[in-house]
Amino acid sequence: MEKTCAVIGSGIAGLAAAIRIAAKGYKVVVFEANSYPGGKIRQQFAKGYRFDMGPSVLMLPNLIDELFSLHNKNPRDYFSYSPIETSFKYFFEDGLVINAYADVEKFGREIESKTTDTKADFDNYRQDIEEKYRITSGVFIENSLHVFKNYLSWKMVSGFLNIHKIDSFKTMNEGNRRFFKDPHMLQIFNNYATYVGSNPYVAPATLNVIQHLEINLGAYMPDKGIYSMVEALVRLAKDVGVSFRLNTRVTEIVTKENRVVGIATIVESCIPFDRVVSNMDIYFTYKKLLPKVKLPKRIINQPKSSSIMAFYWGVNKEHPQLGIHSMLFSAKERDEYDAVFENQTIYRDPTLYIFITSKHVKSDAPPGCENWFVLTTAPNDQGQDWNSLLQETRKNTIAKINRVLHTDIEQHIEFEDMLTPAMIRDNYSSAFGAVYGNSSNSKFAAFFRHANFSKKIKGLFFVGGSVHPGPGLPMCLNSAKIMDKVFK
Ligand SMILES: Cc1cc2nc3c(=O)[nH]c(=O)nc-3n(C[C@H](O)[C@H](O)[C@H](O)COP(=O)(O)OP(=O)(O)OC[C@H]3O[C@@H](n4cnc5c(N)ncnc54)[C@H](O)[C@@H]3O)c2cc1C
Questions:
Q1: Domain 4-42+224-301+445-486: homologous superfamily in CATH
Q2: What does the pLDDT look like over 145-158, one tens digit per residue?
Q3: This model's pTM is above 0.85
Q4: CB of 61 shorter than 6 A to ligand 1
Q5: Which residues contact 23 (CB under 8 A, 6 or more apart)?
Q6: Atom 52 (ligand 1) nearest CA
C-alpha cells in the first residue's frame, strides 16, 4: 500500500519537503492554515501594483532548481531568474553612495575609490568568507548535527579540524574589523547580521558566511517576482502528485506509543498518516500540536530573533537613483542595534531597506510608477504598543527618505499597506513575531536549533526557518534537504 505523509505548512521549506518526499514514492498532502501557499513568501495586488510582501533577496537558486531535477523536470519550464548587476545601492546620511556590483572586481574598485579601505582589503575579506562557508557547509549547513555517524564523515572531520578559522569566538563586527576600518564598510557588512535577525555586536563572526552567498555567489531575482517561485513549486508539487488543503489549520499531531499516526484539523479528529513533517514554527509545533510531549526546553526557551516592520507603497513617481535593492543607513549604527536588541524598540533614525521589483518586473507597477517595499528591523513581540510604534516609525521613515533622497515621498504614495511583528506572529504562526526563529546572538546558536527529526516520536520530522540549519530561503531549503537525508 502507498505510504502517506502530511506536511503541516506550505512555507518554502514545507513545499520543498513535500516535493522531496513525493520523490520517495509517498502520497503527500500539504495542510496550510492560510488561504494561499508560501507562508512568509506572499504577494498582494492593489491599484495596478503587485507587491512581494516577504523575502526579497534570492541566493543559491540552485537549491530550488534541484527540486525540479529530482523529478526529472526542467526548472526553466516552470520559472526563470536573472543575476542582479548591482545587488545593492547603499546610501549614507553623509551623502556617500556605494554601489555593490555583482562584478566583484568592479565592487572592489568602487570601495577603493569611495572609502579609506582598498580593493585588496575586499579581496582578502572575500577569501575569508568563502573559506568560512566551505568549512561550515561541511559541518552543519548541509548536514544534521544530530546524527552520530555524520561526525565520522571526512567533510565533518575536516570542518572540525578547521573550526578555529570560522571565528566563532569573535563577533561579526570584530570579524569585519579585521579587514575594514572605514565605518561605511563596517556598517555595510555588519548589517548582514539582520538577515538572520541578529546583532553584529554580539553574533559570532561565523555568520559572515551570509555575505559569501550574496557577494561571491551572487544575488538573483525571479523574472516574474519572488512569488513566482512559490507558484512554480506548487505547480511542480501538483504535477508529481502532491495535494494541497488550504484554509486547513492542523490542531494536533496524533501519536500512539511514541509513533506518529496522523494529524487532526479543526474539523477532523484524526486523518491517518504514516509520516508527518511540520513546517510550523518549532515553538508552536510543540506548544500547540504536541501538548502531551515533553518540551525540549533548552531549545524552545532560547531568545528569539528580531522582527520586521514594513510599509508597502504604490509610488506614482520613478526614482532612478534607487536600485532593485537599496539601503538607507542610520547615522548611528550602534545606537540602532542597541535600540532593537536591548531596548526592544525601533530606532528613531532607522536603517531602511527599499525593495522595488518593478525595476525588474515592469508589470509590477503602472507606467511611470514604482512598487516600494520599505522595511526596517524591529524587535520581536514582547507586547509593545505596535500601533503607536507603527505611526512613529512611519513618520521617521518618511523623514529619512526625504532627507537622504531629496524628495517628498508622502505626496507620491497612492496605495499603502503595512506589516508589524504582531501581524507576523498571527499571519504566519511565528512565535513572538520573530522572523528567523531562535536568534543567532550566541556562539552556540547552531547547536540550539531543533533537529530535523524527532528523537522521541518516530515518523515525525521538522523543516523551516526555526529549526536546523536556520532561517532565510537557502537555509530553509537546506532544512528540507537534510530532512530528506534522515527521513525513514
Ligand atoms: C518581510 C520579510 C522579509 C524577509 N526577507 C528575506 C530575504 O530577503 N531573504 C531571505 O532569505 N529570507 C527573508 N525572510 C525570511 C524568510 O521569509 C523565511 O526564513 C522563510 O520564508 C521561512 O520559511 P518557512 O519554510 O520556515 O515557513 P513560513 O514561511 O514561516 O511558513 C510556515 C507556514 O506554515 C503555516 N502553518 C503554521 N501553523 C500551521 C498549522 N497548525 N496548520 C497549517 N498550517 C500552518 C503558516 O500559515 C505558514 O504558511 C523574510 C521574511 C519576512 C517576513
A1: FAD/NAD(P)-binding domain (3.50.50.60)
A2: 677 666 667 666 66
A3: yes
A4: no
A5: 70, 71, 240
A6: 54
